[in-house]
């Protein structure tokens, strides 16, 4: 695999053993074209696999960039791949679900590429949306099999142990013309775009505020 754009364009990335579905060049290039400039934006690559998506983001100027992979057997090759970005990509070896639950700071862009057999994609989306990974302008992107369906809108829930929505959703002052109390504002994760790549789809979501 090769990085498709940015300052590391053309650099080769090794695919670790056990990855049978590396992200296609066309899909990666198209996703970043849709996103536009990511310069200076924070980026999270969950289920990173080879690290290629994180490297595409770093190559285009995103920072900081975090890559999460649960399989410690991929660590050596991942570290070698990510060294292309001169230590500008931070690697966490842990299950994606644990990272979602424990991470405390938001990202501007969150990319999800779970294994195609992963059965909890909609639940994962909801949990990411309700976590501290997300602020009101975060964009979430998910790659998944074309034969599956994901909802167009997901209510952003209060997870177990949360008495309220994450603090990033408690200040609604950015909502134009909104003088309603934050307690009266509800949020959904709203589908904004879908693109087809062979037998797979990429969906884009953003949080959206709703006031009475």
Q: Can you tell me about this structure?
A:
This protein is an alpha/beta fold. It has helices at residues 25-35, 52-59, 75-82, 96-102, 121-130; strands spanning 43-46, 65-69, 89-93, 107-112, 134-145, 153-155, 186-197, 200-210. It has one domain: 3-Layer(aba) Sandwich (Rossmann fold), CATH 3.40.50.150. The protein has an eight-stranded mixed β-sheet, with helices on both faces. Strand 7 and strand 8 form a beta hairpin. The termini are far apart. The relative contact order is 0.15.
CATH topology: Rossmann fold
How would the global form be characterised? globular
Largest sheet: 8 strands, mixed
Radius of gyration: 17 Å
Number of domains: 1
Briefly, what CATH class? Alpha Beta
What's the total number of strands?
Answer: 8
Sheet/helix structural class: alpha/beta
Helix fraction by DSSP (H/I, runs of at least 4)? 10-25%
Architecture, according to CATH? 3-Layer(aba) Sandwich
Mean pLDDT: 86
N-to-C CA distance: 49 Å
Region (Disordered): 170-190
Biased composition (Polar residues): 175-190
Protein name: Methyltransferase
InterPro entries: DNA_methylase_N6_adenine_CS, RNA_MeTrfase_RsmD, SAM-dependent_MTases_sf
Concise description?
With 212 residues, the chain is α/β, with parallel strands linked by helices.
Describe the secondary-structure layout:
Blueprint (H helix, E strand, L loop, with lengths): L24 H11 L7 E4 L5 H8 L5 E5 L5 H8 L6 E5 L2 H7 L4 E6 L8 H10 L3 E12 L7 E3 L30 E12 L2 E11 L2
Parallel strand pairs: 1-2, 1-4, 2-3, 4-5
Antiparallel strand pairs: 5-8, 6-7, 7-8
């Amino acid at each position: 695999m090769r990085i498709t754009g940015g300052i590391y364009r053309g650099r080769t990335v090794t695919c670790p053993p056990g990855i049978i579905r590396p992200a296609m060049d066309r899909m990666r290039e198209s996703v970043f074209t849709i996103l536009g400039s990511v310069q200076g934006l924070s980026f999270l690559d969950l289920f990173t696999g080879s690290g290629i998506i994180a490297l595409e983001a770093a190559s285009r100027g995103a920072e900081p960039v975090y890559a999460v992979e649960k399989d410690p057997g991929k660590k050596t090759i991942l570290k070698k791949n990510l060294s292309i970005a001169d230590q500008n990509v931070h690697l966490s070896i842990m299950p994606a679900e644990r990272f979602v639950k424990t991470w405390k700071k938001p990202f501007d862009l969150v990319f999800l590429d779970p294994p195609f057999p992963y059965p909890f994609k909609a639940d994962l989306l909801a949990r990411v949306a309700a976590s501290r990974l997300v602020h009101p302008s975060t964009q979430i992107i998910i790659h998944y099999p074309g034969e599956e369906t994901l909802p167009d809108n997901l209510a952003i829930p209060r997870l177990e142990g949360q008495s309220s929505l994450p603090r990033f959703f408690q200040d609604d002052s950015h909502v134009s013309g909104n003088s309603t109390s934050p307690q009266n504002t509800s949020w959904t994760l709203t589908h904004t775009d879908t693109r087809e790549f062979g037998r797979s789809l990429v969906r884009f979501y953003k949080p959206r505020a709703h006031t009475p």
